[in-house]
Design brief:
Length: 365
C-alpha cells in the first residue's frame, strides 16, 4: 500500500497502532450490541408470525368445522367411521371411496345427531364418493386446485380415531402421478399433514377456507395424498349431467420422442384397433400437442388429459406432423377401466394404485 510522502514519524505510527486496536475493540462491542438488539427485535417478529398463522388456522377451523361431519356405516368387515364435508346447502357431501364406496347403513353426525345418508355415486377410479343427506346444511366453498404450488400452506379438518373434529396444519409437498411403481388415475397432491385413521374423506383447505382437495390415502402418519378438487368436480359434473361418472378414452398409446418438438416429447406409438382414434387420421409418429384443454409436454401428461375426458364427448386432438399442426375431432368412449380396478382410497406402500400402465414409457388415454 502506498504511503504519503514525508509522513512516517515513529511516534505517529505507534499512536496509529494504539488507535487501530481501540477502534477494533469498539467495533466488536458495537457489533455485539447490534446483534443482541437485532436478535431481540426478531424474536417478537417470529412470535407474531407464528401467532398470525395460528389465528388464521383457528379462523378457518371456526368458519369451516360445521360443514365437516363424521360418517358412520358398516361394510363386510364391520363398523367404520370416516370424514366427509358438505358441498351444497341441500345435504350433498364428498368423502373418500374407502368411507362411502362399499358401505351400508350410512349416517352423518351433526351436532351430536345422526342423519341417514345414501350413496349418490361411488367412483373407484378417482377414489371418492358423493353422499346425500336430506337436510339443510352449511357448505364449504369450492376452490381451484389448478395452479397450486409446492410449499403452499394448507390445513384439514377430520375425525381421527373417532375423536372430535380436529384441525391439522401443513403444506403441499409435491404433485405425483405415481407412488412407487404404480400410477394414479390423475395427478395427486402430496401433503405434509399428519393423518390418522378416521380422516379419510377430509377436506384439504387453502388459507381462504376453500376446498382444494379430498384426502383419499395416507403414506404414513405424517403425509397423505389428496385428490385435487378439480378432478373431484369432474366426477360431480358427470353425475349431475349423466347420473354416473363417465371416464372416457380415445385409444392411443404414446411414447417419449427422441427430442422435444414444439415443446412436446410425446410421440404417437400406437393407434389401437376398434377404438375411437382408429381411423380418425391420427398416425404413429405424430407429436401430440394437446388433448382437449390439456397441453401435452411429456408422455405422462396424457394421464391427466385422459382423466378429464368425458365418455361420449368429442375431444379435439392437436398433433404436429412434420411442420404442420393438425386438429382431429374424436368422439370418446368409456375407458376400459371405468367400472373396475383397485381403489386409490385404500393405498398403502404395498398396495397398488389404479391404472398401472403397461410400460414405463407408454401412456394410454
Amino acid at each position: 500500500m502506498s504511503r504519503l510522502s514525508g509522513f512516517s514519524p515513529r511516534g505517529f505510527q505507534n499512536r496509529g497502532r494504539v488507535f487501530s486496536v481501540m477502534t477494533a475493540r469498539a467495533l466488536v462491542a458495537v457489533t455485539f450490541v447490534s446483534l443482541a438488539l437485532l436478535s431481540r427485535a426478531q424474536e417478537p417478529a417470529t412470535v407474531n408470525s407464528t401467532s398470525s398463522i395460528s389465528r388464521e388456522v383457528k379462523e378457518i377451523f371456526d368458519k369451516s368445522a360445521k360443514a365437516v361431519v363424521k360418517i358412520r356405516g358398516t361394510d363386510e368387515h364391520g363398523d367404520l367411521s370416516g370424514t366427509g364435508f358438505f358441498i351444497d346447502p341441500a345435504g350433498m357431501l364428498y368423502t373418500a371411496f374407502s368411507v362411502g364406496g362399499d358401505t351400508e347403513n350410512l349416517t352423518v353426525e351433526i351436532d351430536g345427531k345422526k342423519y341417514p345418508a345414501r350413496v349418490m355415486i361411488a367412483d373407484m377410479r378417482s377414489g371418492i364418493a358423493i353422499l346425500k343427506a336430506d337436510i339443510a346444511t352449511p357448505a364449504l366453498p369450492i376452490g381451484k386446485s389448478e395452479g397450486l404450488e409446492v410449499a403452499t400452506p394448507v390445513m384439514t379438518i377430520g375425525f381421527p380415531f373417532d375423536l372430535p373434529e380436529t384441525p391439522s396444519f401443513g403444506m403441499i409437498a409435491g404433485f405425483d402421478r405415481k407412488f412407487l411403481d404404480r400410477y394414479f388415475s390423475t395427478t395427486h397432491v402430496r401433503v405434509n399433514v399428519p393423518t390418522q385413521r378416521g380422516e379419510a374423506g377430509a377436506p384439504l383447505l387453502n388459507f381462504k377456507g376453500e376446498v382444494i382437495g379430498i384426502l383419499v390415502s395416507s403414506i404414513d402418519s405424517s403425509a397423505c395424498y389428496a385428490l385435487p378438487i378439480d378432478a373431484a368436480e369432474k366426477i360431480r359434473n358427470d353425475f349431475v349431467r349423466f347420473g354416473e361418472a363417465r371416464h372416457g378414452w380415445i385409444g392411443i398409446e404414446v411414447t417419449q420422442a427422441e427430442k422435444p418438438v414444439e415443446g412436446s416429447r410425446a410421440a404417437m406409438a400406437q393407434i389401437m384397433q376398434d377404438t375411437p382414434a382408429f381411423g380418425s387420421g391420427v398416425q404413429t409418429g405424430d407429436i401430440l400437442l394437446e388433448i382437449g384443454k390439456t397441453k401435452v409436454h411429456e408422455p405422462e401428461d396424457v394421464i391427466d388429459a385422459s382423466f378429464f375426458i368425458t365418455a361420449g364427448e368429442t375431444v379435439p386432438i392437436v398433433v404436429l406432423r412434420g411442420n404442420e399442426k393438425i386438429t382431429f375431432e374424436i368422439q370418446s368412449t368409456f375407458h376400459p377401466l371405468s367400472n373396475h380396478g383397485p381403489s386409490a382410497a385404500t393405498l398403502t406402500p404395498k398396495q397398488g394404485i389404479p391404472l398401472q400402465l403397461d410400460s414405463s414409457t407408454r401412456r394410454t388415454p
